[in-house]
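User: We ran a pulldown and think these components assemble together. Before we commit to crystallization trials, I'd like a predicted model of the whole complex to look at. Sequences follow.
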Amino acid sequence: DAGITQSPRHKVTETGTPVTLRCHQTENHRYMYWYRQDPGHGLRLIHYSYGVKDTDKGEVSDGYSVSRSKTEDFLLTLESATSSQTSVYFCAIRSGRESRETQYFGPGTRLLVL
Amino acid sequence: AQTVTQSQPEMSVQEAETVTLSCTYDTSESDYYLFWYKQPPSRQMILVIRQEAYKQQNATENRFSVNFQKAAKSFSLKISDSQLGDAAMYFCAYYGGATNKLIFGTGTLLAVQP
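Assistant: Here's a predicted model for the assembly, 228 residues in total across the polymer chains.
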């Protein structure tokens, strides 16, 4: 357990509405990540952060934005949700210890866009 | 670009038997790490084992071991004495020092028969 929580754990929303997912960590890790998981694709990186207010895009960033105003929180926002964004979203941290390249994951958020 | 390929969408093993899951990857980097993650029906992503590319010795964690063939770019996972709790989706993942990102394969769904 890397002290990662995600909220909400489940959400149903309608096309065109904004949605914000929250990732919270308690161990002061510098690096945080957002992934989406879809059948046949494994996990794909959306955005990541390497410090407060420092973020960068991943391979599937279109339609998503992120913010990190505090070390412990990393927010993922869908400005105007679409049905193609129905997915399971995972947050991850990168360990700051000797295995610093290793990522540990939160429990996931299941999002359904109708 | 780095890629990870898991060519076995599904596998099945009898309880107490041994099973090997395959993974191949493509990279031009010399400094990288390889991982196997387990995802049970709870959807939690659990780190099973990690391997540093610069180490020739294969990693082991209790009943889990890898066969790392660097020249062939192959990274298979062997599960010995399979248990019902090993039933899950298994993902192979690559982390490169230059890319600073974790790249996943599409997963292998393992069923364990009693």
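The two ends of chain A are 33 Å apart (CA to CA). That may be worth checking against your pulldown data before setting up trials.

User: Thanks, that helps.
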